Amino acid sequence: MGQMTLEVRNLSFRHKGQREAILRDVSFCAEAGRVTVILGPNGSGKSTLFKCNVGLWAHYRGEVFAGGLDARKLSVQERAQVFAVVPQEHEPPFPYRVFDVVLMGRAPRVGLLSSPKKKDHDKAKEAMDTVGITPLAQRPYTKISGGERQLTLLARALAQEAPIMVLDEPTSHLDFRNQIRVLSTIRAIAREKNLTILVTLHDPNIAALFSDHAVVLKDGAVFRSGPPRHIINEDLIREVYGVETKAVWVNGHKVLCPILKEELA
Questions:
Q1: How would DSSP label each residue in 205-247?
Q2: Is residue 77 predicted with pLDDT exceeding 90?
Q3: How far is CA 52 from the centre of its chain?
Q4: Class in CATH terms, 6-232
């Protein structure tokens, strides 16, 4: 399956029986070869948007198209061949080898009563090599670090060979070094594999460093969208997060530093 654009049109969502909408007329486009980030404070609708996009929740108004295909009409098998999902964290009940976890990404490509073939093993090895975890192949997944687990899940998603990869807060439990390692790998994969990558993040500075396009949510609606270097500024942080910041330039990158209350006095 070739490259695909993910297009969200006027997406609105509310839980059944509730009057208050969680998402309101959200529209954006995520393109192949680029990292699109969804930003916003807690409660802004990021996780709900994630679940609607990949079909976990289908009772929404509006449309989600993957390469022109209505995502809501895809079967479970078809959806798994279009979307590769990387969760925040995953701990299986059994200490599978890292290689076996990556090989699980081939499940949508293997028949119901079939076993993985040589091609599936080769794709798993290729995915591990791409994200740099080949030396971990025989290690128990439960015995590796948080950063290595996220890279393993990334390799599993790559082995799936889906044109759209969706990552939900992939760095939320990682230290600074592993945040950089995982996000650098994600950005490289988008370019090298020409994948459409959609990622939800908390940190505006990290988002600006590693994404090509940003969609900023506030109260369930798109507050602003565009290239991060153009839209992520002091005014946006004040309006969306309620935090005063000052922009400084470091190694050619703009960084927004919070202004502490005593500094405002």
A1: HHHHHH-SEEEEEETTEEEEEE-HHHH-SHHHHHHHH---EEE
A2: no
A3: 13
A4: alpha beta
